[in-house]
Design a protein that fits this description.
Number of helices: 0
Radius of gyration: 16 Å
Number of strands: 11
Largest sheet: 11 strands, antiparallel
Length: about 150
């Protein structure tokens, strides 16, 4: 612990064509806890992880490694979650990313996506399938899903 605790890791990831390649992931927080039995690194306090999937910020981020220890199995962000990618920024209360299917699930009250055209989409639950570049937003029968703005692009 301290201010800040920073780590840099070389992790394997599978590319779109099925090949494995090393990628760099940088993380920073006020405190780092690592549990070898679970292969879980927990970053607490203004947590930040930057890697090939984007820039993830949250109050707490947990990274779960595969048994070999050099591949990400799953990442979870809790409270004040913000994921910034090249074409969008997504905010919510909780994020789960699974590397096997490159699936992001973001929930929030509401969760929001701000796209590169300044369009804002809100809902309760987002599922993003990165490989298919497909986004599904659900209001969980508690609110309407809505999109507004976006006039920045033609």
């Amino acid at each position: 612990s301290g201010e800040p605790v920073a780590t840099t890791s070389l992790l394997m990831q599978t590319t779109k064509d099925g090949k494995k390649e090393r990628s760099i992931a940088n993380a920073k927080s006020r405190e780092l806890q690592y549990q070898e039995a679970d292969r879980r690194a927990t970053y607490v306090g203004e947590a930040y992880v930057n890697g090939p999937q984007g820039d993830l910020r949250a109050d707490r981020i947990e990274l779960f490694l595969k048994p070999n220890g050099d591949e990400l199995e799953r990442a979870e962000g809790y409270d004040n979650v913000s994921l910034t990618e090249p074409r969008r920024k997504t905010t919510g209360d909780r994020l789960t990313y699974t590397s096997a299917d490159e699936r992001y699930i973001v929930i929030g009250r509401p969760m929001k996506i701000i796209d590169d055209c300044d369009g804002v989409t809100e809902g309760r639950r987002l599922t993003y399938l990165k490989g298919a570049d497909r986004i599904i937003i659900d209001g969980s029968e508690q609110m309407r899903t809505r999109t507004k703005g976006g006039a920045k692009c033609p």
